[in-house]
Design brief:
The complex is a heterodimer. By secondary structure, chain A is α/β, with parallel strands linked by helices. Helix content of chain A is 35%, strand content 19%. The radius of gyration of chain A is 27 Å and the shape is globular. By secondary structure, chain B is an alpha/beta fold. Chain B has a single domain, classed as Pyruvate-ferredoxin Oxidoreductase, domain 3. Chain B is built from eight helices and six strands. In chain B, β4 (70-75), α2 and β5 form a beta-alpha-beta unit. Chain B starts with a strand and ends with a helix. The chains are: A alpha/beta, B alpha/beta. Chains A and B meet through β9, α11 and β21 of A and α1, β2, α2 and α3 of B. β9 (173-178) of chain A pairs antiparallel with β2 (34-38) of chain B, so a sheet runs across the interface.
Chain lengths: 604, 193
């Protein structure tokens, strides 16, 4: 959106919107990625621009491989993922470092310090060091646009993939951004047959290994003069070396200090760092998460302080930095005591029915990554493990191998459609081949929901809005050798429970596909909703429906006198009711109510 | 009126705090100020507590409001105003929608909604302005205009003239403009007394 009336060269953009715009301006023609907070909106915005092919890949490894291919063909290519996605894509990453590129290749990895929406807070700057790749790291959306274009220049000039690190407080921060026009890259689009560069046989790789080392030296020289590595000398009592969003917090905390702001996180400009260090009395490194700059700066023989003062865990802000470096932040008002408000599955979410049943069965639930990870929270509290994308399947299998026959009828994995396609299929094939007895529940709502309804390989449409193949999970499971595959509607709680029990009891690998669409899908939002209601007179206060944890259902406590006045037994502690605004009529509560107290609102 | 400040928008995921914060930003940009706004997406939404940080001034560095630095708080839900007490200071002004949404522990009957929770702000002598956003929205005949009523209440504390807000509303809200403007003005009346 235009930031101010009358000027369309300045837009009010989030970091992710600015990166999408920067990619378009840089002449990107191919982009691939896998959704993951806080990176998702980059491709969702890039798809709105003309002349760019964009796609959601099944996982980050495939996305990067698509990117490498497009780059080999000469296209300027963007690949996007969240921080943990780069773990999945690490295999192509480390060797693409050897092959280098033809068209510029930039890989966005979006880190999530504080774990707002992630299972860990790894610091992906370590990947730049380990894969011997340059990494740029802007601090706000305006810089992100400029530096993304520079990243493509860098990639083609030095024949290297470029890592581009963002964090939540860049990706989801908005600021005024100066925008420009699109300029295409100059690399010719063609097949280039160059086995020494593109075929990483050991003999070729050993040659490329030397090229990588020479490139590292050239990049170190480049870093010394790169304009995004900026030195501002002011009060020289304290000098701060920082980068990314941490720069903004540090500048806010100590506006008068001297700064060396690193826009390039790797390789580091050793000469510039030593010059800066020599001009200040006290040198402090302010960085979020790991002591990455600090360790490398100390290895240069430069004395500095860092993680001995500034926390290595969680996000930073100006107050944390001020306090860490001896500043005063004044008195802070104490927090008031009040109940927490954790996220919850939506009213009408099909996953709720699945977890309601699993919670009532005596099983260990190996969970996975998605909205349904919320099934771990009370009142459902029906998840016992969750590690990374796709891990539910392997973990369930591993448990049965460790625990033996006693565990066979007590071990289930639960995994969403997108996560199953991402990295669950190989685990399932392994279960069959290695004779597992666990049951895999595929909770299939036809969309990648947690990150905001992105289509995946089972959704039947592409990011660019074209109709596409939709993977038939039943067929797929049979094809990898699962003999027992059952399809259930998770809203039909009693029917589903019967099937769950049968398959969990089964002495072989089995799969239950719990299939019902996400309530946030546009067609589901548009569908006519028939909200349900609870007849107060019929409610016995058994709390069965409350146990679903549906946001639309609430409990009203009553005293024995009130109960009596309502014509109920004195011992009834309360009754449940349904918010007509929130209910979407999924019928799960109707299924669990043994007293037939719940029916369509118009009938109550 | 201060040319710089920190506004914390809070509420429950799905309440539309982002639109309210966007309208506010555009008004501040319109008078030539710099601004940064920080939001959280993903897992944090889904009916949980949500917060947006908006900082404005001649030049804004950090996108985050530090504890004790929120000059203005706009909350779409009563309890969610008080949750951010550590971000307030003695002169903070809090605009709060008179609306309760039960958190899970209340909805499942484990505890009652703390009806006197706003007393926590009064105890710290923090100025609180109650705006019945949904009543205003019903009055103007557009149920989605509650957030404009809150922006209206906020607007009297900002260095932005009413006409500037009118211009921004016209540019940004082509649909149901009259209803939204009416809601904005009714909200504005609450804090301009």
């Amino acid at each position: 959106m235009v930031a101010k009336a009358g000027s369309d060269d300045k837009l009010w953009l989030s970091g992710n919107e600015a990166i999408a715009r920067g990619a378009w301006e840089a002449g990107v023609t191919v982009a691939s990625g896998y959704p993951g907070t806080p990176s998702t909106e980059i491709l969702e915005n890039l798809v709105k621009y003309d002349d760019v092919y964009t796609e959601w890949a099944p996982n980050e490894k495939v996305a990067l491989e698509v990117g490498v291919g497009a780059s080999f063909g000469g296209a300027r290519t963007l690949v996007t993922m969240k921080h943990v996605g780069l773990n999945v894509a690490a295999d192509p990453l480390f060797t693409a470092s050897y092959t280098g590129v033809r068209g510029g290749l930039v890989i966005i990895c979006a880190d999530d310090p504080e774990m707002h929406s992630s299972q860990n807070e790894q610091d992906n700057r370590n990947y730049a060091f380990a894969a011997k790749l340059p990494m740029l790291e802007p601090s706000d959306p305006a810089e992100a646009l400029v530096m993304l274009k520079e990243a493509f220049e860098l990639s083609e000039k030095f024949d290297t993939p470029v890592l581009f690190r963002t964090t939540t407080r860049l990706a989801h921060v908005k600021s005024v951004v100066a925008v420009g026009e699109r300029a295409l890259g100059s690399v010719e689009l063609k097949f280039e047959k160059n086995p020494q560069k593109f075929v990483m046989l050991p003999g070729h790789a050993r040659m490329r290994r030397r090229v990588v080392e020479e490139r590292q030296q050239q990049l170190r020289d480049f870093a010394e003069g790169y304009s995004a590595n900026e030195s501002h000398l002011a009060d020289t009592k304290m000098g701060i070396i920082t980068g990314g969003v941490a720069y903004l917090h540090a500048k806010e905390a100590f506006p008068e200090a001297s700064f060396l702001k690193l826009g390039m996180s790797w390789p580091l400009p050793e000469k510039a760092i030593k010059e800066f260090a020599a001009k200040v009395d006290e040198l402090v490194i302010v960085e979020e998460l790991d002591p990455f700059y600090e360790n490398h700066i100390k290895a240069m023989g430069v004395a500095c302080e860092g993680k001995d003062k500034v926390p290595a865990m969680g996000e930073l802000n100006a107050a944390i930095i001020k306090q860490a470096l001896g500043g005063d932040i004044g008195d802070i008002l104490p927090a008031a005591e009040m109940p927490m408000r954790p996220p919850n599955m939506c009213p009408g979410c099909p996953h709720r029915g699945t977890f309601y049943n699993l919670a009532k069965l005596d099983v260990f639930v190996s969970g996975d990554i998605g909205c349904y990870t919320l099934g771990a929270l009370p009142p459902l509290a029906a998840m016992d493990a969750c590690v990374c994308m796709g891990a539910s399947v392997g973990i369930a299998h591993g448990l049965t191998k460790a625990l033996g026959a006693d565990s066979y009828k007590k071990t289930v994995a639960i995994i969403g459609d997108s996560t199953f396609v991402h990295s669950g299929i190989t685990g399932l094939a392994n279960m069959v081949y290695n004779k597992s007895h666990a049951t895999v529940f595929i909770v299939d709502n036809r969309i990648t929901a947690m990150t905001g309804q992105q289509p995946n390989l089972s959704s039947g449409s592409t990011l660019m809005g074209e109709a596409a193949n939709s993977i038939d999970f039943e067929q797929l499971c049979r094809a990898v050798g699962v003999e027992h595959v059952r399809l259930v509607n998770p809203h039909k709680i009693s029917e589903a429970k019967k099937v769950f029990k049968e398959e969990i009891e089964r002495d072989a690998t089995s799969v239950v596909i719990c299939q019902a669409p996400c309530v946030l899908l546009p067609e589901m939002r548009k569908a006519k909703v028939m909200p349900l209601a609870i007849a107060v007179d019929d409610c016995t206060g058994c709390r069965a429906c409350v146990g679903l944890g549906c946001p639309a259902i609430s409990w009203t406590s009553i005293t024995p006198e009130e109960a009596k006045a309502m014509g109920k037994k004195e011992k009834q502690k309360g009754y449940a009711s349904i918010s007509p605004e929130m209910c979407n009529g999924c019928g799960q509560c109707q299924e669990v109510c043994k007293f037939s107290a719940i029916s369509a609102r118009e009938d109550v | 009126m201060n040319e710089s400040g920190n506004i914390l928008f809070s509420g429950v995921g799905g309440q539309g705090i982002l639109l309210a914060s966007e309208i506010t930003v555009y008004a501040l940009l319109e008078i030539g100020l710099d601004a940064k706004k920080s939001e959280v997406h993903g897992m944090a939404q889904r009916g949980g507590s949500v917060v947006a940080n908006l900082r404005y001034g001649k030049k804004v560095y950090s996108p985050l409001i530090d504890p004790g630095q929120a000059d203005l708080v706009v909350s779409f839900e009563i309890m969610e105003a008080v949750r951010y007490l550590p971000y307030m200071h003695a002169n903070s002004k809090v605009v709060v929608n008179s609306h309760k949404i039960a958190p899970p522990a209340v909805a499942t009957g484990q505890i009652l909604y703390p009806d006197d929770i706003l007393d926590e702000l009064a105890k710290q002598n923090i100025a609180t302005y109650n705006v019945d956003g949904f009543a205003i929205a019903r009055e103007v005949g557009e149920i989605r205009a509650a957030n404009l009523a809150l922006v209206g209440a906020l607007s009297t504390f900002l260095p932005v003239e009413e006409e500037v807000f009118m211009k921004v509303l016209k540019e940004r809200l082509p649909r149901k403009l009259d209803e939204n403007i009416a809601a904005f003005l009714k909200g504005r009346a609450v804090t301009s007394k």
